[in-house]
């Protein structure tokens, strides 16, 4: 697989300190048995470390969305949400992070990015092995936007599009918003590299954000939208929605937009 985005990832190692990471990651070990229409795949990402992914396949002929969930969430939280994607004729593949759900290891920002590439490769191989539809989108919610944007910038030759929900252009914005103590750690370089990465994205992009969002302010979605290099972009603002109720408050608009986006991006390529 070629990296059409080019360049290297931002250097997150300066942020990978326990006092900082404890504010960024909230691992949860919950895990439920697979629903009837799903299967789990453990993806090796490091020495004795594997990441759990759950494939919700509504129809092998449908395109698929590789989804990186929000903080404090796990793959099995999407057992009831996946059928809503199926109603829009899209399969859903949800990836965990180190220390979340059935995944082993301890999360860091550097591993979050490195693991995303390995997850992407394994998911594509699994879909090819099963002779499923090869069309693949990447989606990130909140924390998951870091992984999704990274992949969208690197694999523009094989991805169909990018969806960001309740997301942000760089973790630096969230660190500053919450006043996370970084004790003089320089942040400007990471923020600049993230913006440069976003400016190189020329895939179709859909951004969904709640108007009353406070955890990740609406300005983050607007900034992300503004920096995107693509002209094929849409910003959907859900009235009255906040970070944790956007799916329910904006249910109809949320899934209509995703269905329209996936169908349009597939038809337009």
Question: How would you describe what is shown here?
Answer:
The protein has 269 residues and is of the alpha/beta class. The protein has a single domain, classed as Rossmann fold (3-Layer(aba) Sandwich), CATH 3.40.50. It is built from nine helices and eight strands. It has an eight-stranded mixed sheet, with helices on both faces. The longest helix is centred in the middle third of the chain and has 21 residues, at 109-129. The radius of gyration is 17 Å and the shape is globular. The protein starts with 17 loop residues before the first helix and ends with a helix.
Mean pLDDT, all residues: 92
What is the N-to-C order of secondary-structure elements (H for helix, E for strand)?
HEEEHEHEHEHHEHEHH
Q: At the first level of CATH, what is the class?
A: Alpha Beta
Number of H- or I-type helical stretches: 9
Unreliable runs, pLDDT <50, ≥5 residues? 1-5
Helical content class: 25-40%
* CATH-level-4 superfamily name: Alpha/Beta hydrolase fold, catalytic domain
Overall 3D shape: globular
CA radius of gyration: 17 Å
Going by CATH, the architecture would be: 3-Layer(aba) Sandwich
The helix-and-strand class reads alpha/beta
Number of strands: 8
User: In percent, how much strand structure appears in the residues?
Assistant: 15-25%
- End-to-end CA span: 19 Å
Query: Which strand order spans the largest sheet, edge to edge or round the barrel?
Result: 1-2-4-3-5-6-7-8
Q: What is the CATH topology classification name?
A: Rossmann fold
